[in-house]
Structures are given as structure tokens and as C-alpha cells.
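Ops channel
N.P.: pipeline sanity check, posting one input/output pair.
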């Protein structure tokens, strides 16, 4: 089950919409549990308008009122009615009047890359000025932390965006849980995103009597805080025919709050199991998990859809059998009717299909529709998940189940629906959601074990309504893979040393949520994050090399390059952009702009600039295969050979999908005196590349067979992506 979809369902429990601008907030159902609003929704709208320019085309305004996690806010959303679309969204604190966050998007997505007009320094000044205006009262308490490893993607339809992060500093120590994030468009300097997170009334422990870093390191090692696990990297392409990879890794154990050591007590910081986990959360009423036969679903047309790539249909169970599986496991309320079904690939098990079945109530009143979603493996007939929304049980009932009682109910359910697999799991303590847990809900996470080791993203998640005394959601993730033997791995002490070398412990404040809604600040030593997406998430257990969340080793990461030998070059800006994509890194911090480029070097740069994945360790055969699959190369070119201007033109025109135009005969004219040396079949490519500003030519001669320099290639590649191509009219609808 998709965790983020379910999390949105949970958040809806704490949100009360306001129908229109200026809705009456005196309604008792809208009163926040924390503090009463001190500003009106109209004042919130004016605050946003005073600080940001709302594009005139965004004429449709909708507002909402939220009371979530002890904070009352107004949500304000401006949208365009006509094409091209766009939106401006803001959230304003209803008590303090502070702008909490904004984000804006302008449509349509144009298939063209724009060179940033602003430098990073200029964008930083814009972001700093905004902080001075909106968060000036805390500006002196924050520190700018730059992401030195921000990577550009040339096939992104949106402008280059610079991201800046200010972190709250208390007693000279970072508190990463609070601060401000600002995103600035490199194209026009507009603020694309702003997020302000500042928790008031926190008590921060003094740092006078803390343990030494050496002592914290010893506690981290002795605990130990990393453990041997099986890691299943996320499959990014469900159409992939490659099998699911299984890696043996050393990773931070879930129960120690990200490897935190309390700097005052010298003890590991553990997560209170009473907090549970918020994975599959939805509150419902009307479901019984008894074993009795369920009533038949009312006869009604069912909308079916099937994945076009579905194969082996004869091996799949029918939709009717899938519905029968659900009804054997849970009681479907008689007021729900099966309305929709779909058969789709399982993202994490691409060789298998999943039936998604949706039952809805007949009610037509907005906000009163109840529904049940259930999922069944179409190959095995396994009941792999369900969740339902409906009425909300009050958490104030004296006879509500305790956590122990809820756990027994949950485990009785799991033993019934997954008797064999339940023997292969252990209860987890990881907390994916920090904040107030509804009093009527308890959630449990069970991690799969293989060869005695935990398996990432495999296991069971279950949620219990403690008042209704019912299971209200359940999901199973269980990959059908072979697990390698955990022999020949690095000893734990060596792995810990390597992990701490990659991510040394740093002193910071950490916010911990308690079950009673209280927030506690701890002063902890914790593995350094560096606040970027390329921190080592884990270590390969056999080699000790850092590995990221994609299962890629550090050598495979796409990291930006800042070249030291390009100042004053005519293509300095373009080369810098290519460096930010992680391309052309074969010489480290030098680019060598005047060196002749090889076919292989340019193709590797093109693959990197596409940004489709982070696998940068490719064989020559891999590079040539990808280039031909994408139709960049059709000639018999050798990767080690130098690239001519003629072949560069062909590759760039194919890159921007304009080859059919280039093949039209008799319409192209170029102003070069050596036009007679251009092959007739190449004239259209060269004319388009020159006319679109892709090909850099000085003087009145082209010299089509002349070898291209690395600077010329970088210039051509950036300007090829900058060509604005026609939009698909169907994408506009």
C-alpha cells in the first residue's frame, strides 16, 4: 500500500475545510485545540498579498482552516482557470499571523531547459532578503547551511531552482528540526518555495556538562547502533525486466532515533514503543474482522481497468475471486458497493499483478461517503492490504483498548490472514510520523526476517481503532526474492568505524514527541547529515563502501563539479551548468575546455545530464546501447574516436526530436563559404543546429569534419536542451 496516500488520509482527520473566503470561524467544529485564531482568513489573505505578488491569472481562490499537531493555520490556494495553468499556495498561522509556507507553480511544463539568469550568490541574496522580511525576529538565531551537492537536470521542464536552508541555532548548537527553507528560481528570481518551521516554548538543555565526543562514539559503538540488514533498493521503473536486487548492508537500527546518543546521560536515545508508527493509517467504523461469512455485495456495475502490460492472464485470478478473498478475511459492510477494480503491476514485484478493489457507500452527501479499498495478489491470491474511511471513533471512551490490548487484537488478525508469514516477522519500533497520535488509534509495524536479519521495506503494518476495537487498516510487503548468505561480511566493529568515518557524530538538539502530546528537546550526538541528499545511508556489508537509498555505491553517485580551468572561456556558463549536472567529471576539478572530445565522453555526459537515474558506472557497451535506444547515434561511431561538428549536429538534433525536419530536402541554406564540403544528408542537421543556436561557429567557415572541443560540446548540449519544443496539445487538457 502506498504509505504517502494513507498518510494523507490520516492528515485529513485533523483538517476542517472552510467553504469560502471569509467563512464563519465561530462554528465549534472549527475551534483549534491549541489556541483561538487571532486573525481572520481575510487578514491572512492580505498578509500573503503584502509579501508576494499573486499572478493576475490566478483568479480562483479557495481557503481552508487546519488544526493539526497543536497548530492552527489557514490554507490559501490561488489557481488559474484557463490554460496555461498554474497555482500559488500559502499557509498562514491563524494565531501569530506568520506565513508558514508558500509554493507556486506556473504551467505549462515547457520541454526546454533555461540557463539560469541569476548566479547562486544573487539567488542567495534574494532568499536572505525574504528571511529579513518574514522571519526577522529569528534571523539572528539561524545559520545558513548550503547544500554543496545540489545537482541540475537538463531535461527538467522547470527553471533551475536554488535551494537554501537556514537552521535554528541554540546555545551555539544546531537544532535541525527548526528553521527556514527558501527556493529561488534561477530564471527570474521568483520565490518558488518558502517553509518556516519554528516551535515556540521549547526548553533546551544546557550544554555545560555533556559527555565528550569520544565517549559518545564509544556508546555508539558498544550499543551497537548499526545492524546487519537485507536491503532491497527501490525499483524506479516498474517496466524493468531486471530482478529485484538484494544487498547485505550495515544500517542504523530503527530503535535508536537515528543513531542518537544523549549528550547529558551518555545513553542511547530510544523510541518509546507507545508512539507506534504511522504507516497505514485510516480511521473507520463498520468493519468487523470476524470470520463469519460476509453479506453479498449489492449488484452494481463495476468499473474495471487492466494494466496494458499484463501478461500470463491465465495465471491471474479473476476480479470476482479477488473480491471473494477480501470477503473471507474481513466483513464488508452491507451499505458498501463494489464500484471500481483495477489490475496493475506491483511496483516492487514487477513480475506480479495486484487487484485493487474499491467499495463505496451510496451516500451522495459530500464528506459522508464511506469506502473500503482492498488489495489482493492476482497470482497467489494473497490478501495483501485494506484500509477504510468512515466515521471517527472518539478517543475519550473509558473502555478503549490499551496498547497491549490493541497489539493482541492486531496479532490475532495477522495470525489469521498470514499465519506462516507472521512467524517470520518481529515487531518494530521505527517512528515514521512524529507528532500527536489520535487517542483512538494504535499502529504496529512488523519487520520481515530472513536468515535472522531484518529485511528493508518488507513486513506487515496494521492499525487498530481502540474504541471500536477493530482493525482498520493492514498492509503486507513481501518480496519474492532469494536472500544471499550473510557470510563473508565485515565484522560489526570494522563496519561501525567505516560508518562513523563517513558520517562522524555531531552535537545537535533533537525534538522528540511523546505519546501524551508533549514535546521534549534532547541534546544528542548523532551521525552528521550534511543536509543534502547524498549522505551515505548505509554501508555495503561486504566491501564497506557507502551506499545510497538507490543501492548505488559512492562511485556511482552523480555529484556536481566546480571546474578550476574555465574562467574566461566563451562557454564558461554552459560548462558550469554541465558541471552542476555531474557530467564531464572524468578529470575531476578540471574540465580541459580546449581538448578534443570523444564520442564516448559526450554520450556519457548526455546520459548524466538526462538525470533519469544515478547509475554512472557504465561500460562502453552500456553507453552505446543507451545512445542507440534513445536514437542519439545511428552511425557506426567508435566511442574512443573524436567527434566532428557534422556528427555533433546530428546528435543534438536527434536529442531534441527534430530529425524528421532535418531530413527534409531542398529547403535549407547556410551562410558558410565551405558549404560545398557539407554532405547533402547532413545539411538539414547542420542548418537547424546553427539556426537554433546550438552549434557555436566563429567566422564564415564551418569545417564540418573538424573535431569538436569539450567546450564546444558543453555549449551545444546546454543550448540543445534550451530549445523550446512544441507542446503536446493533449497535455494541455
Amino acid at each position: 500500500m502506498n504509505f504517502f496516500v494513507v498518510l494523507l488520509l490520516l492528515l485529513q482527520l485533523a483538517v476542517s475545510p472552510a467553504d469560502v473566503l471569509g467563512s464563519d470561524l465561530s462554528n465549534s467544529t472549527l475551534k483549534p485545540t491549541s489556541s483561538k485564531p487571532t486573525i481572520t482568513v481575510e487578514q491572512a489573505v492580505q498578509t500573503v498579498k503584502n509579501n508576494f505578488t499573486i499572478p493576475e491569472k490566478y483568479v480562483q481562490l479557495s481557503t481552508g482552516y487546519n488544526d493539526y499537531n497543536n497548530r492552527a493555520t489557514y490554507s490559501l490556494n490561488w489557481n488559474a482557470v484557463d490554460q496555461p495553468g498554474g497555482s500559488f499556495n500559502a499557509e498562514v498561522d491563524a494565531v501569530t499571523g506568520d506565513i508558514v509556507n508558500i509554493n507556486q507553480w506556473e504551467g505549462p511544463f515547457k520541454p526546454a531547459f533555461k540557463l539560469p539568469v541569476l548566479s547562486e550568490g544573487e539567488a542567495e541574496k534574494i532568499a536572505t532578503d525574504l528571511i529579513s522580511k518574514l522571519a526577522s525576529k529569528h534571523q539572528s538565531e539561524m545559520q545558513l547551511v548550503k547544500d554543496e551537492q545540489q545537482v541540475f537536470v537538463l531535461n527538467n521542464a522547470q527553471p533551475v531552482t536554488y535551494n537554501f536552508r537556514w537552521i535554528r541555532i541554540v546555545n551555539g548548537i544546531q537544532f535541525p528540526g527548526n528553521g527556514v527553507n527558501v527556493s529561488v528560481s534561477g530564471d527570474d528570481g521568483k520565490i518558488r518555495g518558502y517553509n518556516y518551521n519554528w516551535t515556540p516554548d521549547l526548553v533546551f538543555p544546557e550544554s555545560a556538562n555533556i559527555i565528550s565526543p569520544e565517549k559518545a562514539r564509544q556508546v555508539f559503538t558498544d550499543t551497537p547502533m548499526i545492524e546487519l540488514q537485507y536491503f532491497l533498493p527501490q525499483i524506479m521503473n516498474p517496466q524493468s525486466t531486471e530482478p529485484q536486487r538484494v544487498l547485505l548492508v550495515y544500517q542504523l537500527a530503527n530503535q535508536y532515533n537515528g543513531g542518537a546518543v544523549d549528550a547529558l546521560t551518555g545513553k542511547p536515545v530510544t523510541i518509546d514503543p507507545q508512539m507506534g508508527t504511522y504507516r497505514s493509517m485510516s480511521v473507520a467504523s463498520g468493519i468487523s474482522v470476524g470470520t463469519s461469512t460476509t453479506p453479498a455485495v449489492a449488484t452494481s456495475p463495476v468499473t474495471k481497468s487492466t494494466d496494458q502490460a499484463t501478461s500470463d492472464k491465465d495465471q491471474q485470478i479473476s476480479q470476482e475471486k479477488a473480491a471473494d478473498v477480501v470477503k473471507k478475511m474481513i466483513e464488508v459492510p452491507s451499505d458498501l458497493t463494489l464500484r471500481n477494480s483495477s489490475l496493475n503491476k506491483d511496483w516492487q514485484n514487477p513480475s506480479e499483478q495486484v487487484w485493487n478493489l474499491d467499495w463505496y457507500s451510496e451516500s451522495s452527501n459530500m464528506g459522508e461517503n464511506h469506502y473500503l479499498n482492498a488489495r489482493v495478489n492476482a497470482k497467489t491470491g494473497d490478501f495483501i492490504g485494506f484500509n477504510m474511511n468512515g466515521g471517527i471513533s472518539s478517543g475519550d471512551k473509558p473502555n478503549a483498548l490499551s496498547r497491549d490490548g490493541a497489539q493482541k487484537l492486531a496479532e490475532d488478525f495477522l495470525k489469521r490472514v498470514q499465519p506462516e508469514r507472521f512467524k517470520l516477522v518481529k515487531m518494530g519500533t521505527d517512528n515514521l510520523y512524529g507528532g500527536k497520535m489520535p487517542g483512538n488509534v494504535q499502529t504496529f509495524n512488523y519487520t520481515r526476517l530472513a536468515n535472522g536479519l531484518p529485511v528493508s521495506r518488507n513486513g506487515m503494518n496494521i492499525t487498530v481503532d481502540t474504541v471500536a476495537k477493530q482493525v482498520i487498516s493492514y498492509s503486507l510487503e513481501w518480496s519474492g526474492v532469494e536472500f544471499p548468505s550473510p557470510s563473508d561480511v565485515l565484522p560489526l566493529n570494522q563496519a561501525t568505524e567505516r560508518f562513523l568515518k563517513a558520517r562522524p557524530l555531531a552535537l545537535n538538539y533533537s525534538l522528540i514527541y511523546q505519546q501524551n502530546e508533549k514535546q521534549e528537546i534532547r541534546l544528542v550526538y548523532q551521525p552528521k547529515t550534511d543536509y543534502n541528499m547524498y549522505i551515505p545511508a548505509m554501508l555495503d556489508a561486504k566491501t564497506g563502501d557507502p551506499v545510497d537509498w538507490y543501492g548505488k555505491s559512492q562511485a556511482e553517485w552523480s555529484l556536481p563539479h566546480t571546474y578550476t580551468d574555465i574562467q574566461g572561456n566563451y562557454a564558461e556558463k554552459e560548462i558550469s551548468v554541465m558541471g552542476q549536472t555531474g557530467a564531464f567529471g572524468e578529470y575531476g576539478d578540471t574540465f580541459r575546455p580546449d581538448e578534443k572530445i570523444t564520442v564516448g565522453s559526450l554520450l556519457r555526459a548526455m546520459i548524466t545530464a538526462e538525470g533519469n537515474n544515478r547509475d554512472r558506472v557504465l561500460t562502453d557497451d552500456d553507453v552505446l546501447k543507451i545512445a542507440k535506444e534513445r536514437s542519439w547515434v545511428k552511425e557506426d561511431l567508435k566511442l574512443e574516436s573524436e567527434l566532428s561538428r557534422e556528427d555533433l549536429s546530428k546528435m543534438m538534433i536527434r536529442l531534441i526530436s527534430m530529425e524528421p525536419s532535418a531530413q527534409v530536402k531542398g529547403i535549407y541554406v547556410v551562410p558558410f563559404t565551405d558549404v560545398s564540403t557539407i554532405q547533402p544528408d547532413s545539411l538539414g542537421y547542420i542548418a537547424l543546429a546553427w539556426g537554433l543556436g546550438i552549434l557555436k561557429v566563429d567566422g564564415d567557415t564551418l569545417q564540418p569534419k573538424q573535431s569538436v572541443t569539450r567546450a564546444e560540446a558543453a555549449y551545444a548540449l546546454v543550448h540543445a536542451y534550451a530549445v523550446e519544443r512544441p507542446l503536446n496539445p493533449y497535455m494541455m487538457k
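N.P.: looks fine end to end. The radius of gyration is 29 Å.
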